[in-house]
Design the sequence.
């Protein structure tokens, strides 16, 4: 998990597949691309349309419309996305929680045993759950990072919680730590390993043997956590997938 480069969150659209199902497709511009490309992003299993600098979005969409059979075939290999809605089951520190919606004017989210009680207007459930995850991730990760940086004897700079697609965490040359909020969905030993990994970069800005020795000292189950993330990490991107912003606006 090398230092990351920050990219702006992509635009997106929906497309109707031959079976009648709807797929969400992220749209990204790339000045380095020579031609329009439709692909499945390896980290997330989400469809992505990459437009070269000069191509209009309309032409890109026309290309997308001509590739729906191909897209449906590819997407069938990935599990369906799970939106944050009433009745959906979502993981928190590896335990399943059932989203239970109560209609309310102001958003409030409380974990109650195996239930996640979301008081909010229906249109705000997804945002309320996202916000809750980010807050919880911030608390859990900060506690863990404080403890590990104390063990290491090296303080970190700033700690940020983000929704990164390609990296679970990173450590900048200035000692700032960044984490994806989604790791708070994984079992605690996974979070523990990830935080240990980034904190260890405060001492070793590489993946050398001495780096891994530090990780091992900072996290008891680091091998297990590392393996879990490698095998199951992509699953965490299924959750809380939102419809494109344009459509959300149209339905309000
Ligand atoms: Zn790393």
Sequence:
């Amino acid at each position: 998990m090398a230092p990351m480069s920050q990219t702006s969150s992509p635009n997106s659209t929906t497309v109707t597949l031959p079976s009648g199902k709807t797929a969400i497709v992220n749209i990204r511009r790339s000045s380095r691309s020579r031609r329009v490309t439709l692909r499945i992003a390896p980290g997330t299993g989400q469809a992505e349309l990459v437009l070269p600098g000069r191509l209009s979005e309309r032409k890109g969409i026309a290309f997308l419309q001509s590739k729906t059979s191909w897209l449906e075939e590819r997407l069938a290999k990935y599990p369906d996305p799970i939106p944050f809605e009433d009745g959906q089951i979502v993981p928190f520190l590896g335990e399943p929680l059932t989203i239970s919606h109560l209609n309310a004017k102001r958003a409030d989210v409380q974990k109650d045993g195996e239930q996640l009680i979301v008081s909010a207007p229906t249109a705000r459930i997804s945002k309320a759950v996202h916000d809750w995850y980010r807050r919880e991730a911030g608390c859990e990760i900060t506690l863990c990072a404080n403890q590990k940086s104390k063990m290491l004897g090296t303080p970190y700079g700033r700690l940020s919680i983000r929704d990164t697609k390609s990296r679970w965490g990173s450590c900048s040359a200035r000692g700032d730590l960044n984490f994806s909020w989604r790791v708070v969905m994984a079992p605690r030993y996974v979070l523990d390993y990830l935080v240990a990994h980034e904190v260890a970069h405060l001492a070793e800005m590489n993946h050398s043997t001495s780096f891994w020795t530090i990780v091992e000292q900072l996290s008891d189950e680091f091998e297990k956590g590392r393996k879990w993330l490698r095998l199951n990490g992509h699953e965490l991107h299924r959750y809380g997938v939102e419809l494109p912003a344009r459509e959300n606006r149209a339905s309000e």
Notes: Helices lie at 57-65, 68-75, 125-152, 188-200, 209-218, 222-232, 245-251. The CA atoms of residues 33 and 52 lie 5 Å apart. Residues 1-2, 197, 201, 207 surround zinc ion (CB under 6 Å).
